[in-house]
Amino acid sequence: MAATDSSLVLLEADGIALQVGERWLCCEFSLRLAAGECLVLLGPNGAGKTTLLHTLAGLRAPTVGSVGLGGRPYADWDSLAAARFRGLLPQQQPDHFSASVLQTALIGRHPHLGRWGWESAADVAIAQAALAEVGLAELAGRDILSLSGGERQRVSIATLLTQAPRLFLLDEPTNHLDLHYQVAVLELFARLGREGRGVVMVLHDINLATRFADHVILLDGKGGVLAGTREDVLQADHLSRAFDHPIRRLDVDGRTLFIPD
After folding, report:
1. Which end of the chain, C or N, has fewer beta carbons within 10 A?
2. 6-93+165-260 in CATH: which number?
3. Residue 7 pLDDT > 60, yes or no?
């Protein structure tokens, strides 16, 4: 996956492979993600999508190969600078203490504050704008523990927007969201991509990947990996092998759809 200008490369992996215990999650592959591009990680349950995402986020080292951020190895970044450059949306966000929705969103500003810094009025305005982006402006004063699963997921997304990284790493961003907010959230990140950010996300819905991805990494759960453009990877035969189920491609009103056979 080649970028058109190396100065715009936000994320790069060179010949990486991942092993957990005795099991290889994926064989060696490489990628380059430029500003303005979206990469989707697809594959069956347990294939290693979250492990791969965490590796790309610098939270664990690859078994083979290397990962770089903004043209530099992760080892060259201090933790605060890396947190300002890339932000991770985890699959689960446990809440152990009561806090307001706004206070929770403001956690995203921590990489931008000094060691003893407090959030400024500008930081609060950034968090409020992020809550408005996900339709939660009116719930800013609500207790986080009183929210539904979908509302809590949108708070997590707002917290990431408040962090304002150049690269978003999203683990199942549509988790707990109804159809309206699934599409709204993915359209939000697509817009941020058009504004020059980079997006990497784990999805389970092949058709959403077809709609929003520029590049796809398809894991088959047996160590195999196929990485390339959306058009190259999202083919019925590739998907059928990876998901171990016949999948058919349909072209309807100018849009490509994949359905189980």
Report:
1. C
2. 3.40.50.300
3. no
